Amino acid sequence: MDTNVLRQMGRAAIGEHVSQPAVAFVPGERGELASIASGTLFETLGRNVVVLTAKHCLDEVVDGPIRLVGFRSNNALAGRSPAVAAHPSASVDVGMFALWPEASGTLRGLALPLDQVAVDDAVDAATCDLVIAGYPKQMVVAEGSFRGLTGINYLTGLGQPPTDAVGRLRVLWTEMETPDGIAKMPHPGGTSGGAVWRFQKPPKGIWSPARSGSVIGVPVAWLESAQIEFAEPVSRWRDWFVSTAEEIDRLLKSQSTG
User: Environment class of residue 61 by beta-carbon count within 10 Å: exposed (0-12), middle (13-18) or buried (19+)?
Assistant: First the structure.
């Protein structure tokens, strides 16, 4: 088979894999989309579903209710999170929240296992591809009273230097391929809280997105002049995320039995 066809098949599989657990959430049970934030679904060991996102996106979740939109659906799920957690360090812009029962039951099949969080954030350009997944506000579909959200998965790489002064990943957000040629990327507002994925090219054996891909960062900020998204690297929040998922399991179990 032609290598270009294989490459296109791989990109399509990667796009599907990163899009399935990606969600967008907006404040309120109804009304205009005043703001949009992104997140990634994970299933905990206790079979609860949590959303990994940016800490600065949590205010709307705490105030509640929110509407949540997932993969290939514009049917929003409205509710209040039963548990919200923010990373304790003021310098780490990462947070998470648990889904309420209706949303958890509906979206569990799209959630990632916790082992899809990488154990490091090293990126070798020769053997790795990066993908940003999220929901840019600029891509909202508005027709009459209808409002639809469109997710994006963007194949990219790191800028030079690869990190900023505080250790955040500097991820390129420049141009994309379309059926009509090369186009400028939409403004990334709304992708905060999404995911930066790393896909490693295996030297041999069976390749699949689930085997080669893992989340290595959470987009949190944007530098327009350099067309760079800053992402919190997994090395700064992985241990907290896994241990907090366990705490949420215990909390929700106590609430259900109490």
Answer: buried
